[in-house]
Amino acid sequence: MSVYHFDLYRMIDPEEWEYLGVDGYFLPSNICLVEWPEKGADYLPASDVNITLLYHENGRKLVVSASSNRGAEILQKLKASV
Question: Using one digit for the tens of pLDDT, what is the confidence trace for 21-75?
């Protein structure tokens, strides 16, 4: 398994995703972390797990949710391992 990080903050147009040539990284055996996924719009594959950082009082709050059955399984395994 490999882990990849994509920061889309500087993308101006979602079509830029096609030119990055990274579709081959999004395999079931890999973990792909994507910041600013809304910048990839419909070009970005659907996520399994969403992680959101929110401002909360003097710090931040981490919100984790599943957006697929696979994501739910992943979160269940993580919860069981803690």
Answer: 888 899 989 999 999 999 988 888 999 999 999 999 999 999 999 999 999 999 9
Q: Are residues 1 and 41 in the same domain?
A: yes
Domain count for the chain? 2
Quick one: residue 23, left, alpha or beta (phi over 0 = left, psi -120 to 50 = alpha)?
alpha
CA distance 33 to 6: 6
pTM: 0.79
What is the span of the domain harbouring residue 16?
1-45
